[in-house]
Input
Amino acid sequence: MESRPHPIIIQGGMGVAISSWPLARAVARAGQLGVVSGTALDVVLTRQLQLGDPGEHFRRALAAFPYPDVVDRILTRYFIPEGKSPKQPFRPVPLPSHEPSAEAIELLVVANFAEVYLAKESHHGLVGVNYLEKIQTPLLPSLFGAMLGGVDYVLMGAGIPRTIPGVLDQLSHGQVAELTLDVAGAGPDNRFVTRFDPRTFAGGEIPWLERPKFLAIVSSATLATMLARKSNGRVDGFVVEGPSAGGHNAPPRGAMQVNARGEPQYGPRDVADLSAFRALDLPFWLAGSYGAPERLCDALEAGAAGIQVGTAFAFCEESGLRNDLKQQTLALARRGDLDVFTDPVASPTGFPFKILRLPDTLSEMDAPSARKRQCDLGYLRHAYQRTDGSLGWRCPAEKEEAYVQKGGALADTLGRKCLCNALLANVGLGQLRENGETERPLVTSGDDVRHIPRYLPTSEATSYSAQDVISYLLSGMEGVLPSPQVSHKDGLV
Output
């Protein structure tokens, strides 16, 4: 891969299909790092196919996939030319597993390839993909698919991704990759792993691939130092994320303390030591309420390569968030009437999760109890060792009695929300249930959401673009930065 300058702005890889390929492509075309979310892409692909693939975008990407027999099987199973009936639920995909079926592996590889391919289409800008380390079982085939699509960067947080750099090395050379799973109750002699063999997938050939750069998303210099020194491969940099960023936040250091609203309290110990990051001699980007030109200048003066911005892009025209949710949020922001709540228990991962309180969503206090608890997607399930030594799966957001039967504590189920289904509902891909209702959304956002009206190009505008965000962020750098040198191919814009 040719050496290229580091981007100044990294667009956050948010939610399920919020950071979808149209957003990542728009940012990459503007000379910055566009990032697609790698979470649940197998579900996103299959549900779009069942809706008839509006615009024929995914079928265009699938036509470029190097193994057509795999594509034929997926289209035969999921593609509905005229789209499914609104009264018909989406067909399910296989649940994530440490021993995935051939169908599950094919879906993960193809879905990640397609998302990256579309994000990189018709330009030469940089595209990354974001994964959660906590969601381990889909990672290997997902990474392989993204690398087949030519992804430039892999970003990963929500855990300690110490072995991912080595996995990228192995996959780039067509070697078998292995990932040790975090399993509750497993002793030191009981090691559970998931494996992926690129050569088997490629029919015996070695699929030589470019190794993408790896950026770890961290909240402390201690973790960054450990990753830089003890990872099994090269770490290319860090995104340093503060607690005001949207989505999952790192828990506060020390004993958990909450304010009167029940939110975790962060203090001086949770402020990243930037001098320690500078000492690592690796590029780093600052994230969490950096969506303003003066904050970009602050980051550069502190020695950062730039900033990562999520919330500003989450509500722009190209993001995958439902338009009604964008408009509702923008209207509330203009009135100064937005409330972001850092919920310490909502996420099944156990990480604090920022929730934007909006009507008719799961943010309403009575909404979770009104929803029938079920776990039919399984991305945030926890692995545990059964009494017979085998590996089992449980989720604190599933039915309470089922979770307890699997050895989980009833207290762990209190306040949990099914993020998997809610985040798909955020992008118009919510499942239809037996009672005729569709899953409700649950919007996550950073604290900066209150300021999104500043990205509007005019006072009369009702929406803004990714380019509007980038232009605003770089407005304080005029005369300091060179114009982005991004060459464009003829094609879709």
Summary: The mean pLDDT is 91. The longest strand covers residues 126-132. The two ends are 25 Å apart (CA to CA). The domain at 9-322+457-477 is CATH 3.20.20.70 (TIM Barrel).
